[in-house]
Amino acid sequence: MFRGRLKRGKNLILFVTGFTVYQPLREEESVESFTTLGQFNGYSSSNPDLTLENLTAISTKLNESNNSVATAYQHLKDAQKQRMALYADLVDRTQRVKSYFSAQYSDDSKEYKLISRLKI
Fold first, then answer.
1. Is residue 82 part of a domain?
2. Helix (H) or strand (E) holding 86
3. Residues 16 and 8: beta-carbon distance below 8 Å
């Protein structure tokens, strides 16, 4: 089983296994690296985790995970934008209600004093 943990660097996220830190490659680079590795005649690794098939499977799994995280992140950003738009609309409405009460009843009225400290 391939296990590891994510560790955040300054500008990138590193995948840390028990002994080695791998810098993530772009998909084209990782596929190119594996195909280049397969071109060596007689390549066989003494470590079963480093066989060409296992490395290709791990790369595919990591790319799928990366794509699902990117999709989830985009949904999060869209929801945050929508939330901020609704918040801005609520703040604007609150200010208009307070202005209406101030104009209608004056700043010293009990009606205005009830809502004057309302903050969003």
1. yes
2. helix 52-105
3. no
